[in-house]
Amino acid sequence: GAVVSQHPSRVICKSGTSVKIECRSLDFQATTMFWYRQFPKKSLMLMATSNEGSKATYEQGVEKDKFLINHASLTLSTLTVTSAHPEDSSFYICSGRDTDYGYTFGSGTRLTVV
Amino acid sequence: QKEVEQDPGPLSVPEGAIVSLNCTYSNSAFQYFMWYRQYSRKGPELLMYTYSSGNKEDGRFTAQVDKSSKYISLFIRDSQPSDSATYLCATNQGGKLIFGQGTELSVKP
Fold first, then answer.
1. Are B32 and A97 an interchain contact pair (Cβ–Cβ within 8 Å)?
2. What tens digit of pLDDT does each residue of B12-33 get?
3. Do the chains contact at A46 and B97, CB–CB below 8 Å?
4. Using a CB-CB distance cutoff of 8 angstroms, which residues of chain A are in contact with residue B37?
5. Residue B5 burial (CB count, 10 A)
6. Which of A21, A24, A43 to mutate to test the interface with B (most CBs of B within 10 A)?
7. For residues A26 and A74, is the Cβ–Cβ distance under 8 A?
8. Within the 6-25 window of chain A, which residues sit less than 8 Å (CB to CB) from chain B?
9. How far apart are CA A22 and CA B63, in angstroms?
């Protein structure tokens, strides 16, 4: 089946630094990738939708300058959390769409900002 | 009103029990319905999907959609401790997934 590889799985960074999270679709071409944020015991909150070769579309309330998304190829999308603060600590998950109903998720990245 | 509503639980059952997980949705235009399972600190994995009304069975899992009442269900037979996870219902609107809140299930040995 379709696989999305997400790295790193865990990262701790200092306040003010930037962190990059990568998602790769290993056996399908993901023209569209979705980025989610999940708080403990909460559902997934869609942050943005990225399409290969074009600018990402951000959901209302998500700061596009803080959460930079790049989808430079059909198999790679990245999320960079810039100037991270403790309130950015969360679980970030990407998802690639491979069919009408097939949304394959990465394993998630736990970001802790200290 | 949220587009997809799901009781967050938590739900605790003994091993071997039949589990019923449910969601309601508001928009009758929704057609695809999915159930995802998410283990702690992992990404969701697709369990089942259904299109329109009816039942779909896969091993111990049965997904059911009742479009007349805008109700979707997931049944787990002979539940196992390894089924302990959060279960999320979802539907597809405009290419984006809309999730319920997720139900945390614990199956006790």
1. no
2. 999 999 999 999 999 988 888 9
3. yes
4. none
5. 15
6. A43
7. no
8. 6
9. 33
pLDDT for the residue A101? 62
What's the mean pLDDT when you consider all of chain A? 92
CB of A101 less than 8 A from some CB of B? yes
User: What is the C-alpha to C-alpha distance for residues A43 and B100, in angstroms, rounded to an integer?
Assistant: 7
Q: Per residue in A39-76, pLDDT tens?
A: 888 889 999 999 888 889 999 999 999 999 999 888 99
Instruction: Identify which of B70, B41, B33 has the alpha carbon closest to the alpha carbon of residue A91.
Output: B41
Choose between A31 and A1: higher pLDDT: A31
DSSP B59: T
Q: Buried b / exposed e across B51-64, counting CB within 10 Å, b at 16+?
A: eeeeeeeeeebbbb
Paired tokens of A16: 């003010």
Residue with tokens 């969601």, as numbered in its chain = B23
Can you tell me which residue has the tokens 């990059």? A20
Contact B17, B79 (CB under 8 A): yes
